[in-house]
Structures are given as structure tokens and as C-alpha cells.
């Protein structure tokens, strides 16, 4: 009974972890898309305004290069905002709960494997030998 509740807990924690991971990716994608749209609209307006303003005192080439430099700074800032990755504390906790539950499942299963030959055997002597062999095998596997 405890084994099934631990497996259910691990599945719920994994489900929560995947939902939170998906939520984080969706938020990052939405922020990146919004930044791209906003950046395009802003750049169009900045280009028009800057070229008109800069063309009065300079040549058209130098005005265009100044606008391109500003574009580069804006693109770098928006790209940095879209690319940064912050860990979700609920996702990290769900992963820890899942790992703990799966470790406990492994402990419970190994105990059951040790006791199973003892319970299935018709004679106590054969059951003890089977339990000892099983315990040795489980101990060897657990060390790996």
C-alpha cells in the first residue's frame, strides 16, 4: 500500500514539475514574442524620427549609422531579457519530492525482494538461504 502511495506521489510531483516547466517556457516565449513585436514597432518609429532629426545637420549615411547603433543596443537588451532563465522554486521542490518518493519506492521494493523468498519458501532453511542470497544481490545492485 505504501509503495503505491509513493508512486502516486512521485507521479504527481513529476506532473507538477512538467506543468511548471511548460509554464516557464510559455512565459519566456510570450515575453520574447512581445519584445520582438514591440521592438519592430519601436524601431520603425525611431528610424523615421531619428533620420528626420539627424538628416538636418549630417549626411544621410551618418544618420543611418547612428540609428543602426541604437537598434543594436535595443536588440541586445530585448534579447537578454528573453534569454535569461530563472529557476521556478515550485518546480525545484516538485523535482525534490519526486526524487525522494522514488528513492523510498526503491527502498521499499528492495525490502520486499529480501522478504519474498522467505515468505514463499516451504522450509525455513531454504527460505533463509534464499533471503540471504537475495539480500546479497540487492546490496550489490544498490552499491552500483
TrEMBL record:
InterPro entries: Phage_holin_3_6 (IPR009937). The chain crosses the membrane at residues 25-55, 62-83. Keywords: Membrane, Transmembrane, Transmembrane helix. It comes from the Bacteria. This is Putative Holin-X, holin superfamily III.
